[in-house]
## 1
Amino acid sequence: MKLSKLVILLITAVYMFNVHADTLVDLKKCAENKDSLERLECYDNVVKWLDSHVSSKPTDSLRVTEPKDHTTPVAIRPSQAKPVVVQQPQKQKQVDDFGGEHLKKDKESIEEVFFTVKSVKRVRQNKLVVTFKNGQVWYQTDDNFLKVLPGDRVKLSKGMLGVIYLKTENQNRRIKVKRRK
């Protein structure tokens, strides 16, 4: 009994291997075809051959469904196809761009600017509030020390994670600042 099951299993395996090998060779021949319509017909013929030679009974675990609408075309030839432009809603674009502002680099983005200091004040915790001649007001956000005097020429440069540094031209120190006005 066990021997007969083993022989049947062996014969089935050899048969399926041959079918599988033939199918792979046929699929490779189809893939080598340059014309898209002939290639599609070749693939269809391989599938038809497989359907006729391999049992197509669905197993209990598979669920076979048929499409409801048979009137819609499945494929359109490339010469008849019209390009479809899908408009993405503004809300969806905002959701897709969320958190990625730092990934987009503007080609015209300014990385550093130079200003002349109009006035300097020390506020609580000995932090600086610097006013420039153009009217901008910047305040210090870290605890580092930097000597800045009115009339000094300073450089504001962008750092990582959106931080901005203020540095005087004659010192090799810098402080983190934020614009107030």
## 2
Amino acid sequence: MTANELKLWRKRTGGTVLAARVRYHSRRRAIPERDLLKTLHTEIGIGAPATEVWDVISDLDRWSDWNPVMKVTGGLAPGNAVRVSIAAPGGKTMSFEPEIVDVDDGREFRWRVKKYMGLFDAEHGFRIVPEDAGRCRFENFEVFRGLLGEAMYRRELKALETGFQAMNRMLKREAEKRAREQS
């Protein structure tokens, strides 16, 4: 990349050099990496302390108690593989085994699925942001990378967003119920 091309990329991407990295889709057309990155982000306010929400969301083996759509088994530690099974209403059951890539105890954890030599790469995150006393915000997000990740994002965006929002509401209901029981 020439100096002028780099300046142009910096101008287009807000000054980040990282966004100037390029992946080659074919010999004729280079696709900027930023064009292969798609993000889905949902959030919900929860009337329960962040610690209560963390207790619910971090107990992976008990997800099916409050979330009838998603079952997860495994330990919440970086490097662990967990088993996820999603049975969306009206759809077929989908199972996969992501790796836990990050845990910030009490605040956030993320898992990642990478397949087909990086053509599909998705990282799902669950974040708790404390707000006022006894309240927090829960963020449920996923970053899709690679050609197949972008295709899945485009094809499944509405269903994924609906599923994320439904999970957020179920988590809210469970965390607030537990907080009421403890007070």
## 3
Amino acid sequence: MKKGIYVILAPMVLLSIVGIFAFKEKAITRSETTTTSEYSQPKSQSVNWISLEEAEKLNKTAPKKFLIDLYTNWCGWCKVMDQKVYSDAKVYEYINTNFYAVKLNAEQKESVIFQGKTYAFNPALGKTGINQLAFDWGSTEGRIGYPTLVFLDENLVKLEADPGYKEVPQMLQKLKFYGDNKYKTMNWQQFQQGN
């Protein structure tokens, strides 16, 4: 009887272990500082993620809005958005056409320079510390959640920080609200009712 249980359980345990390693192999890895090359899908099939520094530089000669994805290495929903939302052709094509897309690890220890100002890691923020710029952009009432999408206009003025996971239809709607300049003539609720 015991031998029969082992015969049944051994393959199940083995498959579970193989499945865990396979999932880890496919998982998107994020580092403290993100560059375009770390998201190695072909550009025609993914969001063109660039550094904040590069986006600022490009914006001087070809102004666009910014989409900033605030994430952490431990954030499960951030990884799901990478796999299911940012990989959608309608999403990445719209982002690449209308925004400079930047990923910012909110818990990175390295300082971030934006508009000539240096933003340091602040260990007093959150449970494990947060970069001050990420906190300034993404916090609501002193709290921050992940992922948080931050939208900046062409003049680098924050339009909104929108926390939480978005499915593809929600993401497209939010992108078009800012990308098509609808926010200039109506509020979010009016836009949602019309779409």
## 4
Amino acid sequence: MPGGISTILYAQSVNGTKEQTRRFGSLDHVAKDLFGLGRASPELWRVFRGGISPDLRERIMVGVSRANACAGCTRAHQRLALRAGVTDAELESIGLGDLARLDEPSRAAIVYAVERSGAAFPGPAGAPSTDPDVAAAMARHFSPEETGQVDAIARLITFANLSVGSVEALHERLRG
């Protein structure tokens, strides 16, 4: 697999400051993401009814949560990932953004999901990656239906990450 999809660059702390947790920027943003999540509900139904394997689902959720700097969701999905059979070494790799220890389908799915989340899900659900290496890897390992399921997982966890980030920001603001 090309080196371009063996790593993820997460938001880094700058000068010792905390990573910036992603959150919703407006009510329009919430509505847009909620509408997108609603459109993805058939794929989500398939995910939780025997589609994408639970271990891959949790790898994706940990990777996207880490990319969105949502510590609470990352911790929760790390625990769920361990229960689903993901190893500590794999979780460490995902946490560091060094995906070389993972199998190629997992690397492709995580990089694709993080890319879709970071770009706010442009185009239709399951749209191909804008990176030719990622698009090729996804096509090699996943059917269009499975790609739609990976996209739906990314949408679900991104909505959760941004919701948690928004509530935490509101709480901090109210505390003064």
